[in-house]
């Protein structure tokens, strides 16, 4: 187990503590930062961490120790461990892989809570020391816009990404993948998104062979519609810290609203 300090981590792994690097608007109805108070961290949790690629939560960290009374964490990062050749090529090209099988990588010690985005729900793999991470029903995720598996053959031209937000409508199954629905930003709100139909279709399948289309998991709160006038029932408030600060990188599906 290689151990490095968090300043080395910033160089080697690209971790950027959000509070020190990027300003973002406050959410209107949810307190996402409260979910990463010091007392929220426990041994064996897996957390999504911000990376300097787009300062989005595309890295995963396994909490190994929690120190007190002076708060500090020992964290082992996870790295993708793909088996299919196209996914191996993707990872070798330096492109982010956030779904699939992961194993332990470098370990750091840090007191910087805000380098963490949110806790992930994972399953342990059949082999010791392996972890499986896939979208779950009810979660919100970002997809790479115009994704193509061929990016790995020309990665230098695919370092700047655009994203589209989706809701996960079914748990992942190896045989069928997942069902998703596109989300579009509701005008007049900081980060409220609602379902939309795309090309007249509400739900779309993403097969297990295309899980590389997923860019990262986005923390969110499902809204009732009673929060304020104009809030659609069943819409989501997404964590603004997990949305691109450049509005040109957040793409909107332009079609009719879907029933929630």
Polypeptide structure, described:
By secondary structure, the chain is mainly β. It has one domain (about 5-250). Helices cover about 5% and strands about 35% of the residues. The strands form two sheets. Strands 1, 2, 3, 4, 5, 6, 7 and 8 form an eight-stranded mixed beta sheet that branches. Strands 9, 10, 11, 12, 13, 14, 15 and 16 form an eight-stranded antiparallel beta sheet that branches. The protein is globular and about 45 Å long.
Short characterization:
The chain is mainly beta and 260 residues long. The chain is built from three helices and 16 strands.
Would you report the number of β strands?
16
Q: Specify the structural class.
A: mainly beta
Largest sheet: 8 strands, mixed
| Mean pLDDT across residues | 87
Q: What quaternary form is this?
A: single chain
Low-confidence stretches: 1-19
Shape: globular
| Rg (C-alpha, Å) | 18 Å
Secondary-structure element series: EHHEEEHEEEEEEEEEEEE
Q: How far is it from the N-terminal to the C-terminal residue, by CA?
A: 47 Å
DSSP summary: helix tally: 3
The percentage of residues in β strands lies in 35-45%
* Range of helix content: under 10%
Overall tally of structural domains: 1
